Structures are given as C-alpha cells and as structure tokens.
UniProtKB/TrEMBL annotation:
This is Zinc ribbon domain-containing protein. Residues 1-41 form the Putative regulatory protein FmdB zinc ribbon domain. Residues 58-75 have a biased composition (Basic and acidic residues). Signal peptide: none annotated. Pfam families: Zn_ribbon_8. It comes from the Bacteria. InterPro entries: Regulatory_FmdB_Zinc_ribbon. Residues 49-113 are annotated as: Disordered.
Length: 113
C-alpha cells in the first residue's frame, strides 16, 4: 500500500498509508480529525511486504464482496476428484487386445467402479 503526504490546515503535514483507489480523497488528520487534502511533497513510496502477504491481501480483497461462483469457470469438482478434466496428472489408460482397460499407474489392489 502506498504512503501519501497530506497537509492539515491547523496541524501541518502528515503521512499515511492509503489504498491507491483512495489517494485523491481527503484524509482525516490524526491529531484533530480535520479532512486534509493530499499534497505532492515527494514521490509516493510503497511499503515493502513479502509476496505471501501481498497474495493474502489480494485474496482477501477479491473475496471481500462475494465468493467466487462455480459458473465463472474453472474446475467444478473438488481437488483430486480424479475426473481428469483440467488436471495435470490425468490417468493413463492402456487397452488390452480384447478391449479391456488397464490403468498402469493405478494401485493393483484397489477395485475400481
């Protein structure tokens, strides 16, 4: 989140972290709560946070107003459902001479349906 400079008419300059969407809106002064306009004293500075924290904040912002719907695309089943649609590790099928299916990567002791 970038840091912006603001100027309170009675207290003077102060700096605050604000979302970029709200950069043009007046910020209340921390001392007297007077709405103060943004001033350009220096170039905006970004606080340094880890990539994991940025990703977490982005996920929270995306899910703040509504959850992702299944109709918006993507895989419709749960993780590791085994249907093979869109998965990287879909199962290989080997066919015998009589047309029977064999799964060479499957566990031989499991009974399939």
């Amino acid at each position: 989140m970038p840091m912006y400079d603001y100027e309170c008419p009675s207290c003077g300059d102060f700096t605050d972290l604000r979302p970029m969407v709200e950069c043009r809106m007046p910020q209340p002064c921390p001392a007297c709560a007077t709405p103060s306009p943004r001033v350009m004293r220096t170039a905006p500075a970004f606080s340094t946070v880890s990539a994991a924290t940025r990703k977490a904040h982005g996920t929270n912002e995306r899910s703040a107003d509504r959850p992702k719907l299944l109709s918006e695309g993507g895989h419709k089943h749960g993780p590791n459902c085994g249907c093979g649609s869109g998965s990287k590790n879909s199962r290989t099928v080997a066919r015998g001479a009589d047309g029977s299916k064999a799964f060479p990567t499957a566990r031989p002791w499991m009974i399939s349906h």
